[in-house]
Each structure stands twice: as structure tokens, then as C-alpha cells.
Amino acid sequence: MDKIRALTVFRRVVELGSFKAAAEDLALSKAAVSKNINELEDYLKSPLINRTTRNMHITDQGQHYYNRVCHILDELASADLSVIESSHNLTGSLKISVPMSLGILEINPIICEFMHQHPELSIEVVMNDQYVDLIDRGIDIAIRGGGELSNSSLRSRKLLEMERVLCAAPDYLAAAPDLREPRDLIQHQCLIYSFSSSARRWLFTHADDATQVQEVDLPPGPYVVNNGIALKQAACAGHGILLLPKLFVDKELKSGRLITVLPTWQAETHSLYVVYPYHKEQSQKVRALIDFMAEHFSSDQP
């Protein structure tokens, strides 16, 4: 039995939920996958996966073994990468997941600059506002907004805090009801970014008195979209009020196409993180790109 191959096969069967999917993922026959699992169970003298003609489920022993195996395989992959990459220039490939609008406005120019410094590196950028499974999709690095990670197989590093601003077009504000405090927003047309973790619940703190906090539950609005640039275009066209990171609307605020609303109230800030699988932690090219991004955003801070 090839122990490393058997452990790798076992891991993918558990993660993908079927022998067939694991076989396709590993470019093996279904019979080869079954043989590896059988040999591993014979070696351990314990069943790891119970299977019928239609279903499979992992045993208690199998779940415990899977948790230990993942850690061992990840450590082995990290050890290999640390040796392979330490004696070479950055080569090979990186696959990066970034949100669409933020990727176009901020992240892609950073990646292009990084590519100039490492011309032998091949980079694939996947722009999608939805969260994707990094390990399942073979993603090396993802840029995400949010808080604590729920997946223990991932690591993160904060890049910056993003100030968010409430704004709207002058024409909309001229015809809209008075807006004196955040709770008045329920009388307005509010434009919603659908992938936000708090899409319809906006939280504000008074700039001069942190004890004054208002949380607003918004009614259904006239426009819901999963893209920040599209949301900004709707606001510029006079369709309502939006809440976005300032970097998205800075140019429009300076030109007057959009006007800040409720300037004495501060919306809850969002953090921007770079996220990567645990087993990529020792990868030189992953660390190099993360450090490059962190340095870029640090130098941009006032």
C-alpha cells in the first residue's frame, strides 16, 4: 500500500462525499479509489467509511482519523513547498479569488504590479462576489470582507478597515423626504448590495457621541444587486441612497455626482482580509503576494 496515496484518496472521498467524485478529482478509476480505502481499512483494522450501493457515511473512527490525516497532509505539503520554493525565483502559478468591483478598482492593479516583479509567475484571478470554497476550488488566496473565520482550515490577515459612506445623487435628495437621523432611512429608497452580511440592517454611531447608536432594518427597496459598481451607477442615476466603502464612491463625491448623507453619523466599518488555506501558509509565493498587498494598503493609509 502506498500510504500517502491512500491517505490522500481517503481525504478526498470524505471531502467530496463520494467515491466517484474522488476518482474524477484525482484522475483515478473508481476501482482504484475503492482499493485504496479497502487497503487502508485493512491496515488499520477498523472501518472508516460505511457504504451501500447508493450512500456512504464516515464512521466515528473515520471522522477522527480524517481530522488527523488532514493536518498531516497539509504539513507535508507545506514542508515540500518550503524546500522547493526557497531555492528558486517565484515560479509556477497562483489562483486568486477577489470580489468583482473591489477587484477591478483596487486589487487587480496591485496584482499587475506584483507580476512585474515576478515575471515567471503565472496568475489566475477569479472575480466573483460570492464566497467560494478555497480548498475545493484550488484557490491559493482570496480577498474577503468580514470577521472571524468559521473554517479552521483557513488563515487570514487583515489588510485594512474600510470606511463606509452613506450617499445619494443631488436630484434624488432634492425630491426625497427629510433625512435628519438614520431611522428616517425607512422612508427612503435604499439601494441594497445583496451579498452583504448585513444587507438590510445598517448600523450607525454618532460621530460626536459614541453612546448614540441607531440600527435600521430597511424595508424592501427599489434595487438590489450583487455588484458594488452597479449599485453606484443606480445611485448616480438618482434611484436612491446607498451605503458603500468610500473608495468605491470617492471620485463621485469629489465631483458632486453623489453627496454624503447624514455626515454626523458614521456607518459601521468593514474589514478587508486576505484569506488562504492553512496548508499554503509556508508557500513562498503565497507569502510574497500577501506581504505585497499588506504593504500596499499600509502605505495607502493616511
Provide an overview of this structure.
With 302 residues, the chain is α+β, with helices and mostly antiparallel strands. It has three domains: 3-85, Winged helix-like DNA-binding domain superfamily/Winged helix DNA-binding domain (Arc Repressor Mutant, subunit A, Orthogonal Bundle); 89-162 and 271-300, Periplasmic binding protein-like II (D-Maltodextrin-Binding Protein, domain 2, 3-Layer(aba) Sandwich); 164-268, D-Maltodextrin-Binding Protein, domain 2. It is built from ten helices and 15 strands. The strands form five sheets. The protein has a five-stranded mixed sheet with strand order 4-3-5-15-6, covered by helices on one side. The protein has a three-stranded antiparallel sheet with strand order 12-7-13. Strands 10-9-14 form a three-stranded antiparallel sheet, with no helix packed on it. Strand 9 and strand 10 (209-217) form a beta hairpin. Helix 5 packs across helix 10 (284-300). The chain starts with a helix and ends with a helix. The relative contact order is 0.15. The model has no long low-confidence stretch (mean pLDDT 88).
For this structure, the CATH topology of the largest domain is D-Maltodextrin-Binding Protein, domain 2
> How much of the sequence is in beta strands?
15-25%
Approximate helicity band = 40-55%
**Radius of gyration in whole Å, from Cα?**
24 Å
Arithmetic mean pLDDT? 88
Task: Based on the coordinates given, report the CATH architecture of the largest domain.
Answer: 3-Layer(aba) Sandwich
- Shape descriptor reads elongated
Distance between the termini: 59 Å
Number of helices: 10
Number of strands: 15
Task: Give the ordered list of helices and strands.
Answer: HHHEEHEHEHEEEHEEEEHEHEEEH
The biggest beta sheet is recorded as: 5 strands, mixed
Stretches with pLDDT under 50, minimum 5 residues: none
Tell me the name of the CATH class of the largest domain. Alpha Beta
> What's the domain count?
3
| Assembly type | single chain
Strand order of the largest sheet: 4-3-5-15-6
Class from helix and strand fractions: alpha+beta
